[in-house]
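Render this sequence as a predicted structure.
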Amino acid sequence: MAKSDLDPFRVILGVIAQRQDSDLLLDVVSATGLCFDESLSEQDGYSHKTRVRALRSRIVSAYGALDESSALSAANAMVAALGPHGEVLREASDALRRVGWDVRDGELVIGEPDLREMFFPKGSQWDAFVVLRGVFAEASTSLTIVDPYCDEKLFPLLSTRADKPLTVRILCWQYASALAAEARAFVAQHPGWKFCVRQAKDFHDRFVIVDHASCVHIGASINGAGKTAFMISRVDDPANQVALLSAIDDSWAAATPV
């Protein structure tokens, strides 16, 4: 069975952890056969919230030691264990669909990712990287990146599609000169790509515009996405799309070329 780049076990675990119910967490994870230390100090055992916080990191660590087949088996066992908990299972199913998985007949299957609104908890750098890479992969001709703190960490996201050149506009502030130098080095190795970097302070929030049409709002700078909790969401409202694109074009026209 093919596998989505995003980890279904962590998605389900996140949904359960949000419930702040340590009994539910232990019941569901125990059904997977995963071995981890369940002992708690007096401080960690103080409440459901503290128990969930302490246990979650241990569960993730134990899960990370599994091979791919065992990891998928554990995720499927979690789905089965959530069967008696209909509301939690529905929430988990919704979250899974947003990252390319689905639950059908009680088992995980590959679905279609539906990036509309996606929450990333603290410490989810890899998941954020994969989703941002997917957003960039949607582009057929161009990307516009609005991120005051954009830096060289942008280029690994682009390198995965280096054989499909794009025209990239970057509206940034803090690291503009270093970013422009990195872009020149990238183009030297990957002919066909075109970069234009301009410097402006007009935006606080971060945005990616795909092919001058699709607008994606990013709640953290690309260089640190996932270090702290944030969200990525589509800008679907037509009026907001028009206003955003107009504001970016105005800022771009007035910005300082680098």
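Summary. Residues 4 and 114 are 13 Å apart (CA to CA). The first strand starts at residue 101 and ends at 104.
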